[in-house]
Design brief:
Structural class: alpha+beta
Order of helices and strands: EEHH
Strand order of the largest sheet: 1-2
Shape: rod-shaped
């Protein structure tokens, strides 16, 4: 359903179209009037945000499973030794 409201949008083409083709920004209605922001500043900010890439995720080595496995193996070894001695 379409309402009778119009919105200002900025469409920015992605600099490297590996995953996304475009970014669409919906401009706040009070951005240009009350905040004194020019249209050029809006476009520059949209381009800056669209070109910013997230840092690549790196896999961290998690020592917790190794620790708990070793602790469990040690507990089993202690129980086995106690039953063998007694």
């Amino acid at each position: 359903m379409v309402k009778g409201t119009t919105r200002r949008v900025i469409v920015v083409n992605a600099p490297d179209a590996e995953l996304f083709e475009q970014a669409i920004f919906i401009v706040r209605s009070d951005a240009a009037k009350e905040r004194g922001v020019s249209e050029r500043m809006l476009v520059d900010e949209a381009c800056r945000v669209a070109s910013r890439s997230a840092p690549p995720r790196t896999r961290r080595w998690n020592a917790a499973p190794l620790f708990w496995s070793g602790l469990g193996a040690g507990a089993i070894a202690v129980v086995w030794l106690l039953t063998a001695i007694l």
